[in-house]
């Protein structure tokens, strides 16, 4: 690569959303660069990171349209036939099930690394997409005339549009002068796969217990992904335990729900941070995925919103190209921002309210949670509406 190169679009970040955006532009004649600070090898061979993504049917359709769905091995796809929400020691469970006549699961669980690997393979086949790996973005300037991105190796990339897809703590977003509400929640997720003796029946469990939240995601028979949300200092304390002590602690915290357990993967921790960018676009620039909206994982919907955001932006760009307009057309970016804000804001803010309620452990909060779950169970409009959102 020379010191200066011209592109139609520069995408910063080769995570699943950045790669899917590049793949969405495959049918265009646009010259696209995807900049990623990690190495080419790590992109081609992503390591298992503990995260299992609950894909809605809409996200599956998008991945299928991109050609990535069939690249993912069937053995890495786990159908989600239902979900249960529990509160404390109560035996009551709020139930979410797919409609009896739908013939579709509630969703499908796929490891994050397998999605990334599949999308990487698709983008690698594109003639007009360039993967620029091993370099970070150190500067970005933008105006109505275009954008200039400077990489850590000194190369300068000019583009008609720069798209930030580089995480919820996006450095590119900062360089573009776009602010964001960043909420560091003081909690972390501790994630691992476990083998267990009791059957999960492909039912996910979200359990809001005292001073902790436990999510159990069903994978292969007798295997689940277990997510424990705790105060960060407590999560790191558990991370330091040896395997036997850690399994003993997990069994106690799960109250034996899965029976005897053994570890089926390494343990991973992730600090919980939610973000909402003040704007999703700027002159000749746009944000997608976590750079725009970083959802709390309690609803397991953040990836689906990110995948939807890139699809909306790619569709707007393709329409602008057909109409002879610039890929950074201000009106197109305004429409993209408005639609994403309208579609994502209700779930984002409702999730934050839910997290606020379920992170408090005093008696009034526990009672409110209990009554809320029972209300939702007995009002079909609420329960079926959430199920429909998961399935859409």
TrEMBL record:
Cofactor: FAD
Assigned keywords, A-Z: FAD, Flavoprotein, Monooxygenase, Oxidoreductase
Record domain FAD-binding: where: 8-339
GO biological process, one term: ubiquinone biosynthetic process
Pathway(s) per entry: Cofactor biosynthesis; ubiquinone biosynthesis
GO MF annotation: an example: FAD binding
Family to which the UniProt record says this protein belongs: Belongs to the UbiH/COQ6 family.
Stated name of the protein: FAD-binding domain-containing protein
Source organism of this protein record: Mesorhizobium mediterraneum
